């Protein structure tokens, strides 16, 4: 199928760039930025499945920008990165294939369930998400549960994307015991990998609207670069509570949309 290049009004372009910047910051520091961008794409008249696919253009480019930013600042733990990325890639393939043929009514319950679970985890067991300073990380090979959580995060990310950062943090900080700064760095690496898989399948299915996708991506890349700078200057406690606030906001957004 030929690529779609529908024109968009300047007002919609400005809205997508502004929301993209906000989403890029939010996704780099926590997750849930797609709760801003997905509704915006649907307001433009895109069907839910096309909006879900088109949103991945911005997600991929913002993730790559964040990975580059964290790497330049030497906070990207690369020694176990291949083992961390592998299960997310496998899961993403399965999740994206499911998303292509699944009823769109399943997107909202999946998002809501993930957000509520994450909110309760942060509130009731905060040390799980924010390990005490000096806690040594665990290798994926030494934590079977981490492999499965990363795999499930990949399925979820391939299926709906919105909120996948929260699930990745649950695996990286909760199971592998990385601090939140390094969890965010690895989260963006995993998001890049799983989004490549998802985007390739959506392109093959002809579900991408490239003009709004690339305009949105312009904003998300700027937001991701700002998000990396903010993350480097923010305490673990502040990151933890920002993460909690964003999961609550994501839960409310899932209920209202």
Keywords summarizing the entry:
257 residues; mainly alpha; globular; transport; cell membrane; TM_pro_TauE-like; transmembrane; transmembrane helix
Q: How would a textbook summarize the main sheet?
A: none
Portion of residues in beta strands equals under 5%
Overall body shape: globular
The number of distinct structural domains comes to 1
Estimate the helix proportion, in percent: over 70%
Number of helices: 11
- Judged by helices, strands and strand pairing, the structural class is mainly alpha
Protein name: Probable membrane transporter protein
Transmembrane segments: 12-32, 81-102, 109-126, 146-173, 185-204, 210-226, 238-256
InterPro entries: TM_pro_TauE-like (IPR002781), TSUP (IPR052017)
Family: Belongs to the 4-toluene sulfonate uptake permease (TSUP) (TC 2.A.102) family.
Architecture overview:
By secondary structure, the chain is mainly α. It has one domain (about 10-255). It contains eleven helices and no strands. The protein has helices spanning about 10-30, 35-45, 50-70, 80-100, 105-125, 125-130, 145-160, 165-175, 180-205, 210-230, 235-255. Helix 5 (about 105-125) packs antiparallel against helix 11. The longest helix is centred in the first third of the chain and has 25 residues, at about 50-70. The protein is globular. It starts with 9 loop residues before the first helix and ends with a helix. The model has no long low-confidence stretch (mean pLDDT about 85). It is a multi-pass membrane protein.
